[in-house]
Amino acid sequence: MNDEVVRYTFQFEDRKVVFDTDTKPHQNRVGPDYPEWTRMSYRQCSCCPVKACKEDRCPVATRISAVLEAFASNQSTERVKVTVETAQRNYYQECDLQVGLNSLLGILMATSACPVLERLGAMANFHIPFCSTRETLHRTVGSYLMQQYFKQLRGEEPDWELKELKELYTELEGLNRDFSKRIEGSIQSDAVSNAVIMFFATSVVVASSLDQQLQKHEKYLTNAM
Fold first, then answer.
1. Rg, C-alpha atoms of the chain
2. For a surface tag, which of 28, 111, 134, 202 has the fewest beta carbons within 10 Å of its beta carbon?
3. d(CA 222, CA 145)
4. What's the gap between Cα 38 and its chain centre?
5. How many CA atoms lie within 13 A of 195 on its CB side?
6. What is the pLDDT of residues 166-211, one digit of tens each?
7. Of 26, 32, 43, which is closest to residue 178 (Cα–Cα)?
8. What residues does 181 pair with on adjacent strands?
9. pTM for this entry
């Protein structure tokens, strides 16, 4: 496997679906082949800083449109065998489809050209599927603090108190609500819509109580006795 590619394989009883996903930033594409719901002006997220144009496409929508099409006839609770291949190691889990899609959508959305979600893009380089809430907390906060370290080296003002991270999570809470409305009614299956909600669910939990979450898991995160 290429260092910049993560392969997701969904094995059903009667078919197999494979997605090769780049971990590098994805350039937004435009074109007439995308469905109407991918237009930037279609139920645009309130937090989106991009001025809507009829010809423009939402980068997240175009990034995940193929996933919606691939699983249009599937339900969220269908059992599936998911294999995730990276250059370093492979992962395997038998789970509900929405759980596997949540993991795939996480990397797709974070590496889209969305100006809000791109702030999560650094974690895509170290993608770990099927993370628990504690693992996600460790990866997210750890990645953010690493960015602050390099900001300090460049002579910029670091945010050691995580103020901007808390603001980002609050913004993601609104993005979750708005983007869910964008895809609402665009597909018959609930698998992808539930996976999108799951992707943002952790953000909502962390946003509401980041300090409390860190204190709650302090011993686990720091290996303190």
1. 18
2. 134
3. 14
4. 17
5. 30
6. 888 888 888 888 888 888 767 666 777 787 777 766 666 665 677 8
7. 43
8. none
9. 0.85
Quote the tokens at residue 67. Answer: 């996933």
Mapped onto helix, strand or coil, the DSSP state of residue 218 is helix
Nearest to 168 by CA among 87, 102, 110: 110
Query: Taking the CA of residue 70 as centre, how many other CA atoms within 13 Å lie in the half-sphere pointing to its CB?
Result: 19
192 backbone φψ class: left, alpha, beta (φ>0; ψ -120 to 50): alpha
Distance CA 20, CA 1 (A): 10
Q: What is the largest CA-CA distance in the chain?
A: 58
- With tokens 């395997």, the residue in question is 92
Q: CA distances (Å), 52 to each of 56, 114, 121, 170, 176, in order?
A: 7, 13, 23, 22, 19
Distances (CA, A) of 40 to 50, 60, 151, 173: 9, 10, 32, 19
Q: Which distant-in-sequence residues (6+ apart) come within 8 Å of 72 by Cβ? A: 187, 188, 189
In whole angstroms, give the CA distance from residue 126 to residue 143. 10
- Residue 114 contacts residue 45 (beta carbons within 8 Å): no
